[in-house]
Amino acid sequence: PLLKGRYFTDQDRQGSEPVVVIDENLARQYWPDEDPIGKRVRRGSAPWATIVGVVAHVMQSALVGDSGKGVCYYPIFQLPIWQAFLIVKTKSDPAPMGNSIRAAVASVDSGEPVANLETMEQYVAGSLNPLRIAVTLLGVFSAFALFLASLGLYGVISFNVAQRTHEIGIRMALGAERRQVWALVLAQGIRLALVGISLGAFAALFLVRFLRSQLFEVRTFDPATFVLTSVVLFSVSLVACFVPARRATKVDPMTALRYE
Question: What single string gives the DSSP state of each residue in 199-254?
Answer without folding.
Answer: HHHHHHHHHGGGGGGG-SS--S--HHHHHHHHHHHHHHHHHHHHHHHHHHHT--HH
